[in-house]
Amino acid sequence: MDVHVIRRDNKHLYSEILEDYFRLRHQIYVVERKWAALDRPDKRELDQFDTDETVYLLGLEGRSIIAGMRLVPTTAPTLLSDLFPRLSLNGPIRRPDVYELSRIFVVPKRRGEHAGPRAEAVIQAAAMEYGLSIGLSAFTIVLESWWLPRLLDQGWVARPLGLPIDIDSMSTIAVMVDVDEQAWTEICIRRSVPGPMLVWQGLPVIERPAIRDLVPAA
Ligand code: COA
Predict the structure, then answer these.
(1) Side-chain half-sphere CA neighbours of 37 within 13 A
(2) Domain ranges of the chain
(3) What kind of fold does domain 2-202 have according to CATH?
(4) What is the pTM (predicted TM-score) of this model?
(5) What residues form DSSP beta bridges with 141?
(6) What span, in angstroms and rounded, lies between the C-alpha atoms of 167 and 151?
(7) How far apart are CA 139 and CA 26, in angstroms?
């Protein structure tokens, strides 16, 4: 699986894949997770945070989507600023060096894999690689609390921005995760991710990952 960076400047190369992606999000979040508020008549799941500013990291095998993640700059509206501000005690984070991660998924047939690096770990390592590549210092994430120990266990430093709150009967918390070389190296070592995963098709050479010289030590 390669993880493709898809954003405003190269999304024309991925129009069919993006169409599949929004339909897959409907299947995962509306049908499977039953987040009914996201339902739309066209059976595509996209919302006010899917804009020209949004960056998608899609794990692809050929043209099949295996995993996905969405990144939104916190200088634009985010889940935390506009939908769940109660989760951040000191108000929303709005910084050019911080992006919000959301809509992290793996297709059902590829979840819980044990042979080789899990798709779930690869997509998260790829997010860290992307953050390092464009010079971010942190990610914010609004997450169901069950996910927090998993983030810590993959070697990420995650600080709660507030107390957990019940949202739709699910304990939910907002965290800020450091983006640094240590976090990328740790997830690669602990989850057997072999190294840089991102494909920068159609994107300017100047933004190719600075991470290429960083190889996770065994
Ligand atoms: N509530 C509580 N625990 C959950 C959960 C949920 N909705 N979804 C997954 N988990 C737990 C599983 O119970 C499992 O725990 P275990 O290893 O102790 O059995 C663990 O997380 C791993 O989940 P699994 O789905 O087997 O494999 P994965 O690590 O490959 O993928 C996800 C994890 C979350 C990426 C995948 O389950 C998924 O895509 N889910 C749908 C999308 C989603 O809910 N994303 C999170 C919100 S954006």
Answers:
(1) 5
(2) 2-202
(3) Aminopeptidase (3.40.630)
(4) 0.94
(5) 101, 175
(6) 20
(7) 24
Of residues 24, 21, 22, 78, the one with CA closest to residue 53: 78
Q: How far is CA 157 from CA 33, 147, 149, 180, in A?
A: 27, 13, 11, 10
Inform me whether the pLDDT recorded for 197 exceeds 90. Answer: yes
Quote the ligand 1 centre to 204 CA distance (angstroms): 35
Cα distance between residue 91 and residue 109, in whole Å: 39
Q: What is the mean pLDDT of the chain?
A: 93
pLDDT at 204: 83
Q: Is the shortest distance between the CB of 70 and ligand 1 below 6 Å? A: no
Q: Are 102 and 29 contacting, i.e. CB atoms less than 8 angstroms apart?
A: no
Atom of ligand 1 nearest to the CA of 150: 21
Nearest to 141 by CA among 188, 108, 110, 183: 183
3-state DSSP call for residue 86?
helix
Residue from 102, 93, 122 nearest 193 by CA: 122
Nearest CA to 79 out of 158, 183, 167 is that of 167
Instruction: Report CA 102 to chain centroid distance, whole Å.
Output: 5
